[in-house]
Every structure is written in C-alpha cells, then in structure tokens.
Amino acid sequence: MSVNALLSTVILVSFIVTIVLAIGSYMAYKVRERRRPQLQRPDTGDEPIYFERFFPQGANPRAGGTAGDAAR
Questions:
Q1: What are the b/e assignments for 35-53, b being 16+ CB within 10 Å?
Q2: pLDDT tens digits, residue range 11-52?
Q3: What DSSP element (H or E) covers 11?
Q4: Which of 4, 5, 16, 33 to pair with 46, CA 20 to 30 A apart?
Q5: From CA 8, how far away is CA 1, in angstroms rounded?
C-alpha cells in the first residue's frame, strides 16, 4: 500500500467520523431540548425578563420627559 493511498484512507475515514459525530451531537441536543420543561413565567408584554430598568436620580419616568427636561 502506498503512502498516498494510506493518507487518502485516513482523511476519508476522519471525514466520515466527523460527519457521524456532528449528526449524533445534533440529535442529542434536540432530545435534550425536547425534554427540558418550559419556564412558568407570567406574560409581561414588552418588559425585559432579566434586566431591571435604571433611572438616574432625579428623573421621573412617568413624566414623559428626559432627565434634562426635569432640570430646566
């Protein structure tokens, strides 16, 4: 067996193994995602889920203006 045929075989086998592992990983990911329970959270509309809005000191968010408008 020549070196060229040996290296070609190694490259072909490694390519096929890579494709098989990628498909297996994707299938395992899909199974895990299907098994994960859905979060029970109230519907808050457009409000962010993880962040709390920060208002600078002296700003009134209900006034409809900006902090610069309140200082005038």
A1: eeeeeeeeeeeeeeeeeee
A2: 999 999 999 999 999 999 999 888 866 666 666 666 666 777
A3: helix 3-35
A4: 33
A5: 11
Cβ count near 12 (within 10 Å): 10
Out of 7-16, 50-59, 60-69, pick the least confident. Answer: 60-69
What's the rounded Cα separation, in Å, for the pair 64 and 67? 10
Model-level pTM greater than 0.85? Answer: no
The residues, ordered by sequence, that sit 6+ positions from 61 with a Cβ below 8 Å of its Cβ are 53, 55
CA dihedral 32, 37, 41, 45 (to 10 degrees): 50
pLDDT of residue 16: 98
